[in-house]
Amino acid sequence: MKIDGKAWRSIWVQPDGWSVGIIDQTKLPHAFITARLASASEASHAIKSMMVRGAPLIGATAAYGLCFALREDASDNALNRAYAFLLAARPTAINLRWALDEMRNLLLPLPPAQRVEAGYATAAKICDDDVAICENIGVHGLRLIEDAARDNPEREVNILTHCNAGWLATVDWGTALAPIYMAHDAGVNVHVWVDETRPRNQGAALTAWELGKHGVPHTIIADNAGGHLMQHARVDMCIVGTDRTTARGDVCNKIGTYLKALAAHDNGVPFYVALPSTTIDWTIEDGIASIPIEERAPEEMTRITGRTANGDLCDVDIAAPGSPAGNYAFDVTPARLVSGLITERGVCAASSTAMLELFPERGK
Amino acid sequence: MKIDGKAWRSIWVQPDGWSVGIIDQTKLPHAFITARLASASEASHAIKSMMVRGAPLIGATAAYGLCFALREDASDNALNRAYAFLLAARPTAINLRWALDEMRNLLLPLPPAQRVEAGYATAAKICDDDVAICENIGVHGLRLIEDAARDNPEREVNILTHCNAGWLATVDWGTALAPIYMAHDAGVNVHVWVDETRPRNQGAALTAWELGKHGVPHTIIADNAGGHLMQHARVDMCIVGTDRTTARGDVCNKIGTYLKALAAHDNGVPFYVALPSTTIDWTIEDGIASIPIEERAPEEMTRITGRTANGDLCDVDIAAPGSPAGNYAFDVTPARLVSGLITERGVCAASSTAMLELFPERGK
């Protein structure tokens, strides 16, 4: 999407034809700094340190990381070593393993001399495929926003989102934000309520930043505020992303998503979840019982980075000294609270039947 | 309640017998600093700058402020001037007006020479009455906690609270926290989930501080986390305070309370609201339609004060630069989501009938 009028992706091959550029997302929203990755260790470091985050972008970064390794040594041994090394950067990221498997399965059968070129082509395809999937999510979600705009032609369509499911988390477009960018670009009058998304503040830091840079009207709100806004008919729909969706449509996403879904349900506000079908876990049904929820460092709750008056970045402690903090990263929204899943193939109800109709190849 | 083993109130007459001590709550949780108030302007400043906050404590501070003015000039004119001056410190605080009315109505009929002594006696009574009300709320709420403890004798009783309805907001005990302090002091194994309470962080800053200083086990969590904890049976009950309750039991409280009440309802967790009956607004029924919600400065969302590594306090900007922010201070929880109101007279259902049974003098 655009930054101050210029089109960007979250990862790109540099003019030298082989090294790769990324946006250092650890510096956002305080500073816009790009970084050049030119070795497998730099790619691994970028993933580990969260300079790049979001499942699709992590996968793409690892794919290029493998290319860098192959430029130095394209042997089977080197390929397997680089695979293991990059996979270790964030061992629980399913998409990281998927991208590395794609690369290795395609490259190992080839003669070493052809591997670098084929590797770059595959990495580029991984990126382009992700863009195409997000674009299709955008096209299907756009119709929902256009319908809402037709229902209320005199005023803006107010959409609430939680966390960051934007182009910074993918290669371009994003998932939850793709329909919003398309609506905005098509001239629909959209306004986005951006949940701050404590404790890591991905909403206030990343979603607000990317919407602002692209020129989409938005307002940052406390995670506490969505219910009040829905009670007063100031939200027309919610669109959020997801890390994992179960076969019956339970949605695991950033902590707090469930609370917004409850408020949407209580106020008759449609609650949509945008997702690439690759994040559907067809092996489980009950998300609350089956999905373990990561607990992260308490310091993410009690310490925060911000800009001082003179522009320096500074970490400050904000909670009562010595008080323990709990940091639960995700929650599960039961399918009964989800109005629809926006996938690259279309929109369907959050139910086994509807999901299998859209993805019949998953039926038994 | 106690700070490191020593009993405190949030306001007290100094050993000199006339000036008043307070805790500078703007410095909490980063530093524990008391301040001495000795003039009406110092009392007004303490209210305006939120060195003191919470309806009962604001009223008590204003009452003593009036005493300070009378020590200098006890004439009718001076009394009326001080009344108006102190009322202007926070014109929308209902309890501030109530305390000043109490003082003026009692003092104006007296000869000026008796006003100072009678003023101090009335201010002390306002404080003691508030302590007695909170203590009674505590006694009634304690039974609910003891019942929960009996249901699960092998483990702790987990109570979730939002914002700060503790002794710092009153003169002593607090409202929502009074039953918790009593349970803890009575040896019940309680643990409190403390909602951070964005944007002003009264939970992480004030509730965690006062629970910690009194020795009550607690854990700070993101406002987003309560639903997840309730889904996994890690919350036995919620107890929150309220700024205003309608005649049918709709509850206006800090923004985000409604979302927790929805989650409690969805998971069968009792949701209690603790309140002095003076905060019941018998003139309105529908809280969502009738209570205007204050919108505060966006900087409360985008800027935060914390401690740097060397212990200095520092304000930092945390959101995407230039992104607008909305700051809605309260929301309304419909009576249907409230399991019970804990008042100084006992616990009742959140309904006109039950409330009038407990407060029959309000019946028509």
Give a written overview of the molecule.
2 copies of one chain form a homodimer. Chain A is an alpha/beta fold. Chain A has 2 domains: 128 residues, Four Helix Bundle (Hemerythrin (Met), subunit A) (Up-down Bundle), CATH 1.20.120; 226 residues, 3-Layer(aba) Sandwich (Rossmann fold), CATH 3.40.50.10470. In chain A, the strands form 5 sheets. In chain A, strands 8-7-6-9-12-17-18 form a 7-stranded mixed beta sheet, sandwiched between helices. Chain A has a 4-stranded mixed beta sheet with strand order 13-10-11-16, with helices on one face. In chain A, strand 6, helix 6 and strand 7 form a beta-alpha-beta unit. Chain A is globular, with a radius of gyration of 21 Å.
Share in helix of chain A? 25-40%
Query: Beta-strand percentage of chain A?
Result: 15-25%
Question: Which CATH C-level class of the largest domain in chain A is it?
Answer: Alpha Beta
Largest interface, Cβ cutoff 8 Å: A-B, 69 and 69 residues
Count of individual domains of chain A? 2
Structural class of chain A: alpha/beta
| CATH arch. level architecture of the largest domain in chain A | 3-Layer(aba) Sandwich
By oligomeric state, this entry counts as homodimer
Q: For the largest beta sheet of chain A, what order do the strands appear in spatially?
A: 8-7-6-9-12-17-18
Question: Any idea what the radius of gyration of chain A is?
Answer: 21 Å
Shape of chain A: globular
Average pLDDT of chain A, to the nearest integer? 96
The main β sheet of chain A shows up as: 7 strands, mixed
**Any low-confidence stretches of chain A, pLDDT <50, length ≥5?**
none
Distance between the termini of chain A: 39 Å
- What is the fold named in CATH at topology level of the largest domain in chain A? Rossmann fold
Tell me how many strands of chain A there are: 18
What string gives the helices and strands of chain A in order? EEEEEHHHHHEHEHEHEEEHEEHHEEEEEH
| Relevant CATH superfamily of the largest domain in chain A | Translation initiation factor eif-2b, domain 2
The total count of helices of chain A amounts to 12
